[in-house]
């Protein structure tokens, strides 16, 4: 598995993925560098996995063969589904793509499928993945030439990713793809880039993005994250207060603890 691919692996949680990304961003700031980052979201990634491509990856990339490969083939296909409401049922539909969601093996199979992305990324760019969420970033010293080269590297990398997605039957969700530059206020003031072109779409630079449930602002002071999480927690407390007279003390304590979860205090 690629070392920068998190999710569904031991010691590779959402928390560890965020810590690694934030650590690298802070490291760049300490070195007086700016980090240009694209947060890429895939559309219905688990539902578009091509079975033939997946089996080919398992065989050539991971050495799965013989009976083991046949077993995985029989696990993936043929599969079908239908919807039943009361006594009425829809027509049976064959599932020609996707991995079985809600299963432990389905998650692992998706990681092996998406892991080949890291093989095509140029070494000058760093990619972090968490399930179907990916970030692509590169650092540069804030001067016109270095900034221009960094943006070209990101745009070229985005084209490579887009080509890889087309080959693997995946699709980049342009509406959820975000572009941001991280650095100290002094270094960011030297930058002039206001957008980046990804697959013929101009993505405007943001001052804050949401990634894996965290709000990351361009200076990494986390003011926006704290503001939003406190707002969510206060809303939860208000809801608890409105139904307090109907709750036991034990139930109230449980809800109170859950109310702290958005703040990340547990």
How would you characterize the overall build of this protein?
The protein has 266 residues and is an alpha+beta fold. The protein has helices at residues 14-30, 51-62, 66-76, 104-114, 144-167, 185-188, 223-242, 249-260, and strands at residues 5-6, 34-41, 80-81, 84-85, 88-89, 93-94, 126-130, 133-140, 178-182, 195-198, 201-206, 208-211, 214-217. It is globular, with a radius of gyration of 22 Å.
Features:
two-stranded antiparallel ribbon, about 270 residues, 7-stranded mixed β-sheet, single chain, disordered C terminus, alpha+beta, 8 helices
Summarize the structure.
The chain is of the alpha+beta class and 266 residues long. It is 42% helix and 20% strand.
Query: Which percent range describes the beta-strand content?
Result: 15-25%
Q: How far is the N terminus from the C terminus?
A: 30 Å
- Label the overall shape: globular
Order of helices and strands: EHEHHEEEEHEEHEHEEEEHH
Helical amount = 40-55%
Low-confidence stretches: 262-266
Q: What composes the largest sheet? A: 7 strands, mixed
Class from secondary-structure proportions: alpha+beta
């Amino acid at each position: 598995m690629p070392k920068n691919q998190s999710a569904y692996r031991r010691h590779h949680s959402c928390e560890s993925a965020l810590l690694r990304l934030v650590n690298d961003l802070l490291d760049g700031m300490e070195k007086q560098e700016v980090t240009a980052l694209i947060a890429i979201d895939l559309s219905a990634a688990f539902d578009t996995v091509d079975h033939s491509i997946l089996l080919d990856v398992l065989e050539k990339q991971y050495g799965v063969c013989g009976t083991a490969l046949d077993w995985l083939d029989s696990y993936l296909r043929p599969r079908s589904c239908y919807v039943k409401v009361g006594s009425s049922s829809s027509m049976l539909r064959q599932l020609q793509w996707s991995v079985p969601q809600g299963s432990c093996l389905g998650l692992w199979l998706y990681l092996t499928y998406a892991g080949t992305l890291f093989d095509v990324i140029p070494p000058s760019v760093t990619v972090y993945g968490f399930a179907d969420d990916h970030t692509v970033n590169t650092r540069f010293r804030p001067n016109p030439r270095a900034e221009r080269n960094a943006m070209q590297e990101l745009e070229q990398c985005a084209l490579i990713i887009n080509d890889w997605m087309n080959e693997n039957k995946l699709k980049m969700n342009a509406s959820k793809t975000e572009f941001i530059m991280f650095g100290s206020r002094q270094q960011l003031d030297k930058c002039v880039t206001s957008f980046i072109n990804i697959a013929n779409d101009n993505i405007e630079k943001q001052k804050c993005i949401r990634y894996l449930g965290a709000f990351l602002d361009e200076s990494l002071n986390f003011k926006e994250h704290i503001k939003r999480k406190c707002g969510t927690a206060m809303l939860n407390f208000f809801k608890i207060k409105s139904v307090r007279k109907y709750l036991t003390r034990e139930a109230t304590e449980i809800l109170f603890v859950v109310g702290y979860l958005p703040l990340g205090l547990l």
